[in-house]
Write a structure and sequence with these properties.
The chain is α+β, with helices and mostly antiparallel strands and about 140 residues long. The protein has helices spanning about 45-55, 120-125, 130-140, and strands spanning about 1-15, 20-25, 30-35, 35-40, 60-75, 85-95, 110-120. The protein starts with a strand and ends with a helix. GO terms for molecular function: hydrolase activity.
Length: about 140
Amino acid sequence: MEREKGVVLVVYKKPSRNPRYLVLNRKKNWEGWELPKGHLEKDDYEHTARLELSEEAGIEAIEELESTEQVLEWSFEDDDGQTIKREYKAFIVKVGEGAVTDTSANPHDEHERGHFFNYEDAKSLLTHQNQKEILDALHETITR
C-alpha cells in the first residue's frame, strides 16, 4: 500500500465572538464541499499549509498557524487497482477578519468558490464525514 502525506486546514476568522470557517466548493475529480488540503511539498508541513491556503483560497495573510495532533485519513484505489492511503496532518489557521477567498488563481483549478461559514453551516456543507470530524475536534480547540 502506498502512503501519501499532506495537510488539511481548518481556517477561521473571528469577526464576532463566533468563528467562521473556510469551506471550498470542489469541482475537480468530484463535486462537493471540503476543507483546504493538499499533498506535502518539500517535506515541510508548515510550508505546505501556507502554500495550499494561498493556492486554493488566495489567502496569504495568516495571523496564526498551529499544528495539531489530528490526522485526516482515507484510502482509495487508483486507476491501476493499487490502494493509496492518505494521511493529512491537520492545522488550525487563523486569518484576519477581512480575509476573503479568491479561487480564480488556483493552478490546478480544483475549486469553484470558497466562503466563510458559521460552524453549523460549515459542518453541514462538508461532503465527507472524516472532514466533519476534524472540524468538530478543532472547533472545540478554537472556541475554548
